[in-house]
Design a protein that fits this description.
The protein has about 110 residues and is of the alpha+beta class. The chain has helices at about 5-30, 35, 100-105, and strands at about 45-50, 50-60, 65-70, 75-80, 85, 90-95. The N and C termini lie far apart (about 65 Å).
């Protein structure tokens, strides 16, 4: 590996870390899982999706890339759809963001 290759590789890694940080920041602010349920979404966090266990390995915009145990490739999963997160107190199911219009349309 030449010096230029090393610099290019380092820049790509830095861009990936920035993208992941931005995605995770958006996920945290939009879904509010930590505030609402005590769930901190982070790379390396253990999750269950539809009963399959795995680890968060990357982000994909508003979604997560999860490497399920025994799988050869990661899968893209929605942050709350059928997703459970391992916390210090056990597994917690992620609840979707409450729909602010649901209450007003139900009352109508």
């Amino acid at each position: 590996m030449t010096y230029d290759d090393f610099e290019d590789h380092a820049e790509v890694e830095a861009q990936t870390r920035r993208r992941q940080a931005t995605d995770l920041e958006h996920i945290a602010s939009y879904y509010g899982l930590e505030h609402r349920l005590g769930i901190r979404v982070a790379l390396g966090g253990r999750v269950r999706h539809g009963g399959r266990e795995g680890v968060i390995v990357d982000t994909a915009g508003q979604r997560l890339r999860v490497m399920f145990y025994g799988a050869e490739e990661s899968s893209i999963c929605h942050v709350t759809w059928a997703m459970e997160y391992e916390t210090a107190t056990g597994w917690i199911a992620a609840a979707p963001v409450p729909d602010p219009w649901a209450a007003s349309t139900a009352a109508a």
